[in-house]
Amino acid sequence: MQKLAIEGGTPLRGDVCISGAKNAALPMMCASLLTSDVLKLNNMPNLHDISTMRKLLEQIGVTISVQGDEMLLHGANVNKLEAPYDLVKTMRASILVLGPLVARFGEARVSLPGGCAIGSRPVDIHIRGLQAMGATVYIEHGYIHAQAKRLTGARILFDIVSVTSTENLMMAAVLADGVTILENAAREPEILDLAQCLNAMGAKIEGAGSHTITITGVERLHGTTHHIIPDRIESGTFLVAAAATGGNIVLHNTRTDILDAVSEKLTEAGAQIRSSHDTMHLHMPERPRSVNVRTAPYPAFPTDMQAQFMALNAIADNSAMIIETIFENRFMHVQELRRLGAKIDVEGNTAMIRGVDRLEGATVMATDLRASACLVIAGLVAQGKTTIERIYHLDRGYEHIETKLSQLGANITRTQ
Ligand code: EPZ
């Protein structure tokens, strides 16, 4: 089992290159199921979740090749309409093959994802949306079975804002007969990026990135080449790491206009941030000020940055409250931070963090993707050595994080 060993106390300094967005790449890979032409994706991140999605799509019959950060996907010979449990259980985003398979082939069998560390994360919204579009959907032996001669356009109102439900149903609707309207849709930048890719493939989607998305079904889609947007969560994670260590870094190949809620919180914490179109410069001249955070759907503060800000608040100058409104169990990193000396009390979905002058290195365990990032940040500021176990969680969403951090001066190594 691999671990990360970190000797804390060094401010991060220098330049770092941000990779393509995992949560844009995953649905876009599934869009290859919607056409028999070749889909070419540039700026692909090299992540474990991407490899898992590649394995799943190849099992379904998509031919995939990778050259550097370019991935070619060819869905001409799809011959198996199933996403098996052994793959779906490792990555919830596998559910994103459901909409495209039913849209193009009229049928799909996708294993229920099961829960995960951060909550039960049901898929009822995905299922109800397909039923609204005329699919027959039933659950049997832990699998979702969906069938439809041809999906028909429908008006679907989301009672909860859901990112992958919005993506799944948007992809289902592009080949449906008629117009589909998604009300109270998620507004994440990754959804707009997916819509732009689908429109380049011949889809007719309007309003992506707003609360109401209108999709007019077409007969078929063709291939295209699409450049994936930068990963705003990777960007935010490096900015917080620099702020926590009192550093001075420049992010390259990022996007400044999709990180406003995070930038504003970092400025409130005392960071000096200067941005141009694809670079962000953060300098942290003194100890961070404590900042209250409340997660909510985009464009509000992202839940995927909650754990990272808990690490920042752990060593800030006062007390702060973090309220997690999206997932019911996304404080798994609290008990690990306490092992490093953090003072945190949790009451339901609210954590109260009292900043301490310093954290002490210790051995801690990663529990989920963003909790791992929080522990890396805490290790970078703790005095002495921190060892992080189960770092496969980290590799799901961060490309060579120890290499990028070492280039910023961190004393961090991966060990067996
Ligand atoms: C996406 O997950 C992201 N994953 C998550 O990023 C992110 O944390 C989350 O959106 C929220 O922004 C990908 O894009 C691959 P949701 P998703 O559906 O779509 C409930 C990361 O770190 N819900 O927006 O699964 C659900 O339980 C990952 O990269 C239902 O009740 O999240 C949650 O409480 C972690 N029924 C809320 O909606 C459903 O059918 C929002 O979940 C679907 C969701």
Automatic annotation (TrEMBL):
<dbReference type="GO" id="GO:0051301">
    <property type="term" value="P:cell division"/>
</dbReference>
<dbReference type="InterPro" id="IPR050068">
    <property type="entry name" value="MurA_subfamily"/>
</dbReference>
<dbReference type="InterPro" id="IPR013792">
    <property type="entry name" value="RNA3'P_cycl/enolpyr_Trfase_a/b"/>
</dbReference>
<feature type="binding site">
    <location>
        <position position="92"/>
    </location>
    <ligand>
        <name>UDP-N-acetyl-alpha-D-glucosamine</name>
    </ligand>
</feature>
<keyword id="KW-0961">Cell wall biogenesis/degradation</keyword>
<feature type="domain" description="Enolpyruvate transferase">
    <location>
        <begin position="7"/>
        <end position="405"/>
    </location>
</feature>
<feature type="binding site">
    <location>
        <position position="326"/>
    </location>
    <ligand>
        <name>UDP-N-acetyl-alpha-D-glucosamine</name>
    </ligand>
</feature>
<comment type="pathway">
    <text>Cell wall biogenesis; peptidoglycan biosynthesis.</text>
</comment>
<keyword id="KW-0133">Cell shape</keyword>
<feature type="modified residue" description="2-(S-cysteinyl)pyruvic acid O-phosphothioketal">
    <location>
        <position position="116"/>
    </location>
</feature>
<dbReference type="GO" id="GO:0005737">
    <property type="term" value="C:cytoplasm"/>
</dbReference>
<dbReference type="GO" id="GO:0008760">
    <property type="term" value="F:UDP-N-acetylglucosamine 1-carboxyvinyltransferase activity"/>
</dbReference>
<keyword id="KW-0808">Transferase</keyword>
<dbReference type="InterPro" id="IPR005750">
    <property type="entry name" value="UDP_GlcNAc_COvinyl_MurA"/>
</dbReference>
<dbReference type="InterPro" id="IPR001986">
    <property type="entry name" value="Enolpyruvate_Tfrase_dom"/>
</dbReference>
<dbReference type="InterPro" id="IPR036968">
    <property type="entry name" value="Enolpyruvate_Tfrase_sf"/>
</dbReference>
<protein>
    <recommendedName>
        <fullName>UDP-N-acetylglucosamine 1-carboxyvinyltransferase</fullName>
        <ecNumber>2.5.1.7</ecNumber>
    </recommendedName>
</protein>
<dbReference type="Pfam" id="PF00275">
    <property type="entry name" value="EPSP_synthase"/>
</dbReference>
<dbReference type="GO" id="GO:0071555">
    <property type="term" value="P:cell wall organization"/>
</dbReference>
<comment type="function">
    <text>Cell wall formation. Adds enolpyruvyl to UDP-N-acetylglucosamine.</text>
</comment>
<keyword id="KW-0573">Peptidoglycan synthesis</keyword>
<feature type="binding site">
    <location>
        <position position="304"/>
    </location>
    <ligand>
        <name>UDP-N-acetyl-alpha-D-glucosamine</name>
    </ligand>
</feature>
<feature type="active site" description="Proton donor">
    <location>
        <position position="116"/>
    </location>
</feature>
<keyword id="KW-0132">Cell division</keyword>
<keyword id="KW-0131">Cell cycle</keyword>
<dbReference type="GO" id="GO:0008360">
    <property type="term" value="P:regulation of cell shape"/>
</dbReference>
<keyword id="KW-0670">Pyruvate</keyword>
<comment type="similarity">
    <text>Belongs to the EPSP synthase family. MurA subfamily.</text>
</comment>
<feature type="binding site">
    <location>
        <begin position="22"/>
        <end position="23"/>
    </location>
    <ligand>
        <name>phosphoenolpyruvate</name>
    </ligand>
</feature>
<dbReference type="GO" id="GO:0019277">
    <property type="term" value="P:UDP-N-acetylgalactosamine biosynthetic process"/>
</dbReference>
<keyword id="KW-0963">Cytoplasm</keyword>
<dbReference type="GO" id="GO:0009252">
    <property type="term" value="P:peptidoglycan biosynthetic process"/>
</dbReference>
